[in-house]
Amino acid sequence: MLTLEANRTEAAPALAYIGRVSGKPEWKFPAHQHEDVSEIVFVSHGEGVMKINGVPYAVKAGDLLIYNQGIIHEECSSPICPLDMYYCGVIRLNNEGSAPVTLIPENASPYVHTGENAGHIGSLFAMLYTESEEQAEDYELICSSLLVALITLIRRMAATENKPCKNDPDALAVSLKKYLDEHYLYHLSLNDISQFFHMNAYYLSHVFKKKYNDSPINYMLRRRMGEAKRLLVNTDMKIKEIADFLGYENPNYFSILFTKTMGESPTQYKRSERRERIDLPRA
């Protein structure tokens, strides 16, 4: 972690620290919060799970996580495709008696997929990290400008996230699938989904089933079981650990669901797949 020494005379957001996590399969950070710092995380490569106020998000390259001050969050890297990510803390200088640093509105999603902006976000973080590390002449001014650009871009993306139109069922189904792919670790009900989209639950289910021949709830279940299969074959994680990773507090219940969905128990599946697969040595 790199700490930025900054000019304390201006009441504006400033960089408190910046750091990187790279290629650590076992990396995780338990639930915590920052009372006086807001934090931005950018995933440049790999996969993981971030829980924000108890809600898990399956993250991948190009994703941003934004934690306003006081937000409880925890982070965990995928053991198969480890996270590479930047993170930085933002404070407000001379903040006595004034409002805390709020990077995004309280009702905005703390998870943003940057899409075509991923390259810009990655470049801003890389420059912030390099300038903070090298601390060449006027690096404080450069970091301040880069931080303003980063926050402005984040707020623009958060403000322009539009929900699909009810009058375009096909686009609605695609948008719903994207939402489910991003939140399948959070055990959503159909009512939860309908509240997010501000639409009738049965209409949403009908639109999704017509396009994908599946219900939203069953789709999320199959996504979780597919992830379970991947972890069973490619890691040495225990069934209890996989169940916890996928949001199941009771590993026995997870095993029952897996068996019902996949036709064999997690142990049977792992044994049969390992027996059939040949792993070649890597160069």
From TrEMBL:
The record places domain HTH araC/xylS-type at: 174-272
Which UniProt key words apply to this protein?
Answer: DNA-binding, Transcription, Transcription regulation
Q: Which InterPro entries is this protein grouped with?
A: Cupin_2, Homeodomain-like_sf, HTH-like, HTH_AraC, RmlC-like_jellyroll, Tscrpt_reg_AraC-type_HTH
Lineage, opening ranks: Bacteria, Bacillati, Bacillota, Bacilli, Bacillales
User: Which superkingdom is the protein from?
Assistant: Bacteria
Which is an annotated GO molecular function term of this record?
Answer: sequence-specific DNA binding
Q: What is this protein called?
A: AraC family transcriptional regulator
What's one Pfam family the UniProt record gives for this protein?
Answer: Cupin_2
